[in-house]
Design goal:
The protein is α+β, with helices and mostly antiparallel strands. The protein is built from seven helices and 41 strands. Helices cover 14% and strands 30% of the residues.
């Protein structure tokens, strides 16, 4: 599962903790396979209402599972790898020491958000998640389109391609709360912290799906890689090629992105079918120097998932774990596992990973893989607007009153918003203003000194809004489901003159001027001659044409500066 690497004083890499974690995973899965909790661990219930319990019974007699060791044989880069079920066995004893460790070592803590690639505060995905799905190699066959518009392929016997698109495309729809589990995790807290706070940048609830693009790469290089069984390096290189294909050529455009490289049936990407250290999927990033076949790849640091043709593994990767026959159960469960882990540990090549993992190196999906019903947190069918897919439960630190546990869903974790700044400090109506802060996602309203504005976009760190015509000088406010926050400084609307009526008249004529930012106008002139102001508001002024005025432009001087009419007023 997700390995932590420890380097000792002599520069040697220690792997003892990884082996212990594998033994622990095997024990937990063996208990989960039968639903028996005797002498083992019960994970927390759905929605966080269950409990974590342990028994010191010296022995257990129940059917269990033996798992592969995906990170064995120095495959240290297979972060969050879903192991294969190798066989069933009989457990003769369950160590109370292992049981105790399973309870006390599960809480996920923050790793600091640093990457070997030089990124800071990059432990988790903090903007709208974006998944780019790549079908790798011409062995997928002829591309067609389903009735729902999803890409489909002639050599996809189990319809894996539409199922993956249904999963990624449907997240954040129909009020599903599986996606709410990850929103409790964040960047910006102390290393080792188990919880987030109001000043941290939390993972967002996805807005109406995360599928940002689909690419069928049937080029010669991709086909050769898929045929030969792509190395980890080739998969990383394919991710960089995908980023270029989708126009994401700099680091900023990839900050909240992940690339899922799906290999065709019959292929063997990065030795996934190996009987001892095979796996069902894993995630990593392209700058991980330990990747087999050539190490790190140049270009922006990208998060990617190696998604083999999981149905080929059948029950070894969870087929039939939720449905009957459930051919795709294990595939979409593996996709959910790696998606959740990429969100919470986006660029894991640092040592230790900068995102969220426990003291044994396990991430949010590792602790909850292969849990069957009726055990709490089991894999289950998630209903989305795009269809129903099987997903696994994820680890929640907040479950069981903060003791943690595997859950199937959770409310969206929202902290009160904070506004720290905005730019520009002054602008006319119709211009956009970027308001920065924390916990600003899901903005339901933005006001300029009480005047409602149109929201153009929002993320956890910034909201962009349009200056309304009726704005007056004062603070900006942002309202989210977590509360309302206001700026400490005032925004100043710059005046504009849009029109005036009548267009002509003698001295003493009353002229109505329409525009924006006109409140508390200090001065109005007609071709340089100061006029009397009868009435003023943010959007309207009424003046009297002064004596000795001649034909010319109207000028309004207000709090935010000066504005001139486009056409002249004619004095008759």
């Amino acid at each position: 599962m997700s390995p932590h690497h420890v380097t000792n004083g002599a520069g040697r890499r220690e792997t003892g903790r990884r082996l212990g974690r594998t033994a622990l995973a095997a024990l937990l899965v063996s208990v989960g396979a039968t639903g028996s909790l005797a002498g083992a661990v019960s994970v927390a219930g759905a929605a966080g209402n269950g409990s974590v319990t342990g028994s010191s019974s010296p022995g257990v007699s129940s059917s269990g599972l033996v798992l592969s060791d995906p990170t064995g044989n120095h495959h240290h880069y297979r972060h969050g790898a879903v192991p294969r079920i190798v066989s069933s066995t009989r457990l003769r004893a369950a160590s109370s020491k292992i049981t105790s460790m399973a309870i006390t070592s599960k809480t996920l803590t923050y790793g600091g958000g640093l990457t070997a690639g030089g990124l800071v505060k990059a432990g988790v995905t903090t903007g709208q998640p974006k998944v780019y799905l790549v079908f790798y190699g011409s062995q997928w066959g002829t591309e067609t389109t389903t009735g729902s518009g999803a890409a489909a392929f002639s050599q996809d016997p189990n319809a894996l391609a539409p199922a993956l698109q249904a999963f990624y495309g449907g997240l954040g729809t129909d009020g599903e709360q599986w996606s709410g589990i990850v929103t409790q995790y964040c960047d910006g807290v102390a290393v080792g912290a188990p919880t987030c706070n109001s000043s941290s940048a939390n993972i967002l609830y996805p807005a109406g799906g995360v599928l940002a693009g689909v690419w069928y790469d049937n080029s010669g290089g991709a086909t050769a890689g898929a045929t030969a069984g792509a190395t980890g390096h080739q998969l990383a290189a394919e991710s960089e090629a995908a980023a270029t294909h989708f126009g994401n050529t700099d680091q900023a455009s990839n900050r909240d992105a992940q690339y899922v490289i799906a290999s065709p049936t019959g292929s063997n990407p990065d030795g996934w079918a190996n009987p001892s250290n095979g796996y069902c999927a894993y995630h990593d990033d392209t700058h991980d120097s330990f990747i087999d076949g050539g190490g790190a790849v140049g270009g922006p640091i990208l998060a990617f998932t190696n998604m083999p043709y999981v149905p080929d593994a059948g029950s070894s990767c969870g087929a039939g774990s939720v449905n009957n026959p459930g051919t795709l159960d294990g595939a979409t469960e593996a996709a959910s596992h790696e998606y959740g882990e990429t969100l919470t540990d986006q660029f894991p090549e640092n040592n230790p990973p900068g995102g969220w993992s426990n003291s044994l190196g396990a991430e949010i999906g590792d602790r909850c893989a292969y849990i069957p019903a009726p055990i709490a947190g089991a894999a289950y069918n998630l209903t989305l607007a795009t269809g129903t897919v099987a997903v696994q439960g994820l680890w929640s630190n907040a479950a069981n009153s903060g003791k943690g546990g595997c859950v199937q869903s959770a409310p969206v974790d929202r902290f009160p918003p904070t506004v720290t700044s905005f730019t520009p400090a002054a602008a006319p109506a119709g211009a956009t203003v970027s308001i920065t802060g924390v916990n600003l996602s899901g903005a339901t309203a933005v006001t300029f000194h009480g005047t409602p504005a149109t929201v153009v976009s929002d993320t956890g760190a910034a909201v962009v809004a349009v200056v309304p015509a009726g704005a007056t000088k004062g603070p900006l406010s942002v309202q989210t489901p977590g509360g309302t926050a206001s700026s400490t400084k005032s925004f100043t609307p710059q005046p504009t003159v849009v029109s005036f009526s009548p267009a002509s008249g003698p001295v003493g004529t009353t002229v109505a001027i329409s525009g924006s930012g006109l409140a508390s106008a200090k001065k109005v002139t007609v071709n340089g001659k100061k006029a009397t102001i009868v009435l003023d508001s943010a959007a309207h002024l009424v003046i009297i044409v002064p004596a000795k005025a001649s034909s010319g432009l109207l000028m309004v001087q207000a709090v935010g500066g000066k504005a001139f009419s486009v056409s002249p007023f004619t004095v008759t």
